[in-house]
Specification:
This protein is α+β, with helices and mostly antiparallel strands and 275 residues long. It folds into two domains: 148 residues, no CATH class; 125 residues, no CATH class. Helix content is 51%, strand content 11%. It has nine helices and four strands. The protein has a four-stranded mixed sheet with strand order 1-2-4-3, with helices on one face. The longest helix has 25 residues. The chain is globular, with a radius of gyration of 20 Å. The two termini are 25 Å apart.
């Protein structure tokens, strides 16, 4: 009986927010197709255009309402779209997706919301939609997972106030800053969920999907380090420069953080292939 209960809890954990994620992303894809057909081909694209924002909320709006599973977790899901003519040139990618979960600690969930930002190169087209959808689902479920966390868990990703650090942000110029955010209980929970979703979508082992995510972390902060440390001292004074070496960055992401995420995933998603 104990084994059956454990298996049932694992099943519920693995399936949590899957339906809500599918429902949300199904409402987004037609809008992305519109952007491919009508927005990207137009000259002088302005990112302030109203048709580059899609809001899905509790109140009925053009047939787009929140999934019932999310009604007590947030009041809206906002999707924004940006055209970046140099995205592929600068990153090698035809699209990028980022997200955030906004909340006020101690105020309940009625003012919480998630925001998913998509960035498209002008070369983005319908042939890229399958890959885009997989990433959209992964990022969306990551932010939804935050919506189900308690204030205590969410608070683990918030930094203490320190010199040379903007309020509410970790100091990413140091490994301790990266560790404070990416290895927090809050982000460990959401990134392992995101990776699990990505692995399911692409039908690949969990560790393969995780290594894709770890590589993106490493590449992002290596680019940031190289750019900041190459700037003139007058633009970026020494105290604001990145303090870690490439080897230290590699060790943190590919060893320390990877091991932590795998250990956590084994407890939450024991049926996942490859862990």
């Amino acid at each position: 009986m104990k084994k059956l209960m454990t298996e049932w809890r694992n099943f519920l954990q693995e399936g949590r927010y899957e339906a809500a994620t599918t429902e949300l992303t199904r409402k987004v894809i037609p809008h992305v197709k519109y952007i491919i057909d009508e927005v990207i081909p137009s000259e002088g694209v302005q990112n302030s255009r109203k048709d580059l924002i899609l809001v899905i909320g509790k109140t009925f709006s053009a047939g787009k309402t929140l999934p019932k599973e999310l009604e007590d977790k947030m009041y809206k899901a906002e999707f924004t779209f940006h055209i970046d003519k140099k995205l592929a040139e600068e990153t090698g990618d035809k699209f990028m997706i980022g997200g955030m979960h906004m909340s006020v600690p101690g105020e309940g969930k009625e003012d919480d919301y998630i925001k998913i930002n998509s960035y498209f190169d002008i070369g983005f087209n319908e042939q890229d939609l399958n890959e885009y959808l997989g990433e959209l689902k992964a990022v969306t479920i990551h932010e939804i997972q935050h919506g189900g966390q308690t204030d205590d868990v969410l608070g683990t990703a918030h930094p203490p106030k320190e010199p040379l650090q903007p309020p509410g942000w970790w100091n990413y110029n140091q490994i301790d800053g990266l560790r404070g955010y990416y290895a927090s209980d809050s982000e460990t929970d959401t990134y392992t969920k995101e990776v699990y979703k990505r692995a399911k979508y692409h039908k690949i082992p969990y560790t393969e999907a995780l290594d894709m995510r770890i590589k993106s972390f490493f590449d992002q902060f290596k680019r940031r380090r190289d750019k900041m440390n190459a700037e003139d001292e007058r633009e970026t004074p020494g105290e604001y420069r990145v303090k870690y070496t490439e080897e230290e960055l590699n060790d943190f992401f590919y060893n320390e953080l990877r091991d932590k995420y795998i250990a956590f995933a084994k407890t939450k998603y024991p049926e996942a292939v490859g862990i």
